[in-house]
Design goal:
The structure holds two protein chains of two kinds. By secondary structure, chain A is an alpha+beta fold. Chain A is built from three helices and four strands; from the N terminus they run E-H-E-E-H-E-H. Chain A has one domain: Alpha-Beta Plaits (2-Layer Sandwich), CATH 3.30.70.20. The radius of gyration of chain A is 13 Å and the shape is globular. By secondary structure, chain B is of the alpha/beta class. Chain B has twelve helices and ten strands. Classes of the chains: A alpha+beta, B alpha/beta. Chains A and B meet through helix 1, helix 2, strand 4 and helix 3 of A and helix 1, helix 2 and helix 10 of B.
């Protein structure tokens, strides 16, 4: 995982529909016990296709400065 | 508006878009695994983010049904109205304050069956609201009864031997009723749908976006369409961009859906015409006094 981006999976929200795994261009996701997981020995290019099609918002790309942006935004809310 | 910064949980795992435009305390939503509505709700939030609309000036109106729960999850000024009447409420809101951005989120049964008359007359009137239809071809919440958009021959709980009626093309219906913007998106074509919703919101006049959703629980199971993934793959393989569809014959387009802005034109927007009328009458009255 290069740069300041990373893939985040929120298992608590995942309903195991498998859409992200099916449409991942690198085949880097798999379902284990109806929850999505990063497949070992595969490359994630952080394209965000999973985030676009996840109906449950359980998988997304996070940027390093996201937290700061969020805090700032909360204060201006 | 209340300070929601205190209410929203800060440490939960979610993207900034979800955090900003949704109510995380109500998530995860109640939609079934693989339901297309979640994807489309995110499209709407992304379109609003891209346009930079203020949360205070944006109203989300919804009726009753699976799709209409979106008004509970989106963190704007929202109103969850009676079955089929979302457009009627939206018309009132828009007329009371034309500077507001009014977005209606409704399902196919909500908008084209129970609220069918509201749809055609709002389209004819060309009032400046945006209607996003989450079209899953069935009544999902009540248990899979066939809706006006269920294709002919498809199965539902109330159509165990196949639906006899022909289906409504909601985008075409809105066009026929005089909508100045009608378009179709899909749960699979996320980027295109976000762009179309953006165009629809930006459009001055009535805009209708018919977004093909997927209902793996009822429509998928009754029609043996497979899982949500298979249904999204169907959309990928059977939806044709509007530019390409123009060059194709009706035979080639049979069984396919056209994706994109199908029709866009410019008429006088209703609230503008109404304000102009009021102004004229005031001026006439003053001149007569």
């Amino acid at each position: 995982m290069a740069g300041n981006k990373r893939l985040v999976i929120n298992s608590a929200w995942c309903k195991g529909c498998g859409i992200c795994a099916a449409f991942c261009p690198k085949g880097a996701l798999e379902l284990v016990d109806e929850k999505v997981r990063r497949k070992e020995d595969t490359e994630c290019i952080l394209c965000g296709m999973c985030e676009l099609r996840c109906p449950d918002y359980a998988i997304y790309i996070e940027e390093k400065d996201d937290e700061e942006a969020r805090n700032q935004w909360v204060m201006s809310y | 508006m209340v300070n929601r910064g205190d209410v929203k949980p800060k440490n939960k795992q979610m993207s900034n878009l979800v955090y900003k435009y949704m109510r995380p305390e109500h998530l995860p939503h109640i939609w079934c695994p693989g339901c297309g509505n979640g994807i489309i709700m995110r499209d709407v939030a992304q379109a609003i983010e891209n346009l930079g609309l203020s949360r205070n000036n944006t109203i989300i109106v919804s009726g009753i049904g699976c799709s209409s729960r979106a008004a509970g999850y989106l963190d704007f000024n929202t109103i969850h109205t009676t079955h089929g009447r979302a457009i009627a409420f939206a018309t009132g809101i828009k007329l009371a304050n034309p500077s507001l951005e009014v977005i209606v989120i409704a399902g196919d049964g909500d908008i084209s069956a129970i609220g069918g008359n509201h749809l055609i007359h709002a389209a004819r009137r060309n009032i400046g609201i945006t209607v996003v239809v989450m079209n899953n071809n069935i009544y999902g919440m009540t248990g899979g009864q066939y809706s006006p958009t269920t294709p002919k021959g498809a199965f539902g709980t109330t159509a165990p031997y196949g639906n006899l009626d022909r289906s409504f093309d909601i985008a075409g219906l809105a066009y026929g009723a005089g909508a100045s913007f009608s378009a179709r998106g899909s749960a699979y074509h996320v980027q295109q749908t976000i762009n179309i919703i953006q165009e629809g919101i930006r459009h001055d006049g009535f805009s209708l976006i018919d977004v093909a959703s997927v209902c793996p629980t009822y429509f998928g199971r009754k029609n043996k369409s497979g899982s949500a993934v298979d249904m999204l793959k169907w959309q990928r393989d059977n939806m044709i961009p509007a530019e390409k569809a123009e060059k194709m014959s009706p035979e080639e387009l049979k069984g396919k859906l056209v994706l994109g802005i199908l029709h866009q034109t410019q008429y006088t927007e209703f609230t503008y015409a109404y304000e102009r009328l009021i102004k004229r009458l005031y001026e006439e009255r003053e001149a007569n006094e």
